[in-house]
Amino acid sequence: MKLFRFGEKGEEKPGVIYKDGIRLDASAFGEDYSRHFFETGGPDRLAAWLEGHWQELPEVGEKVRLGPAICRPGKIVCIGLNYSDHAAESGMKIPPEPVLFFKASSAFSGPEDNVIIPRNAEKLDWEVELAMVIGQRASYVDESDAAKHIAGYALHNDYSEREFQLERGGQWVKGKSADTFAPFGPYLVTPDEIPDVNNLNLWLEVNGERVQNSNSKNLVHKPLFLVSYISRFMTLDGGDIISTGTPGGVGLGRKPPRYLQPGDSVTSGVDLLGECSQKIVAYPG
Ligand code: ZN
């Protein structure tokens, strides 16, 4: 099953891709894809409900805006330097333990929404990533139990402003958190549709040129380990997002570095998780 959300910003409704790939309006189920939904077995309850109701649901038109695939999460936990080629291009060693950092949840955005260059920013960069969404709350979870806590997987582009991130002191969060810096979707795919999460191609193109091209088998720390590892430091609530890190090929790693400009278009995809495109625009005014 694939979950998505659609409609105007702030007014999104839940949708589901069911059976033959038809996009259905799932509003009649009565719940959005919130923390409560994920912590109470929402995807299974929705699947059971759909059995008897899917034929009555209206289809969602082609032209409607897609919102982020789930409601705004409580937290977005990102993993840094989790592909060896990306660590090398960043001039850093693979750290002995996963590097964790946060991205403000206010950066959450629809998968096809414009990405806004922040005021006074000149180093906007791209990062295609495999992300996961927590289902049942996770605290001190063993790796062998971690799968039970994952509600699904989705495509995430961890947009980053490199000067804010690396040249302005303190933590990376400053360069990761501007509005629109976390396009999420097109949809959340439940784990039953993904035979092997450790073998998914992921790629990203800038104006049609392929700049990132890798596979989740190259992740240093794998998704199940990451759920277990992070849960030793904080409780992961339902609907929280873990973004597993980006492979090599970001703008920072090019010689000379290349950063995004107004008018650029960025298209990315992950096997089985769909594709999305964002247009880069200047800060308004
Ligand atoms: Zn990242």
Largest sheet: 5 strands, antiparallel
Q: Would you identify the regions where 5 or more consecutive residues have pLDDT less than 50?
A: none
Hetero groups in this structure are:
zinc ion
List SSEs in N-to-C order: EEEHHEEHEEEEEEEHEEEEHEEE
Mean pLDDT: 97
How many beta-strand runs? Answer: 19
Structural class: alpha+beta
Beta-strand share of residues: 25-35%
Strands, helices and their partners?
Layout: E1 2-6, E2 13-18, E3 22-25, H1 35-39, H2 42-53, E4 66-67, E5 76-80, H3 84-89, E6 99-103, E7 108-109, E8 115-116, E9 124-125, E10 128-134, E11 150-157, E12 160-161, H4 162-166, E13 182-183, E14 188-189, E15 201-206, E16 209-215, H5 223-230, E17 241-243, E18 265-270, E19 274-281
Bound molecules: zinc ion.
Zinc ion binds near residues 78, 129, 243 and 246.
